[in-house]
Amino acid sequence: MTTFVRFEEYNDNEGETWNFWLQEDGNEEEIDKFLNLLMDLEGHCREIGMDLVYLLTTDTEPEQVVDKLVEYAEEGYMPSHSKVTGKFTCPDDLGENADKLYKGGIKDFFS
Predict the structure, then answer these.
(1) Residues 6+ positions from 88 with CB-CB distance below 8 Å
(2) pTM, 2 dp
(3) What is the pLDDT of residues 83-94, one digit of tens each?
């Protein structure tokens, strides 16, 4: 059974929140690395008085649950729920203001 963790992106520009369900199986080390990058980003945002618009929830969900969320996702600029599968290669940095993650950029790190 494949499990997934939720990566949330709030996009103020579009006024939407997108949930990207990232495949956990086989990607545990890269997800840990990603979590550490997000924690560093959170500290930086706090220092400059900016809200963090990304959140990684490490609770897992089975694929059947994720498939239902994707099936019933609200449509907008992007679907409110998307399933992201494959091999995750976490970048060494997220770019200035985490621009590598902007508008679903997390999907670019999966092959």
Answers:
(1) 22, 23, 27, 30, 31, 34, 109, 110
(2) 0.93
(3) 999 999 999 999
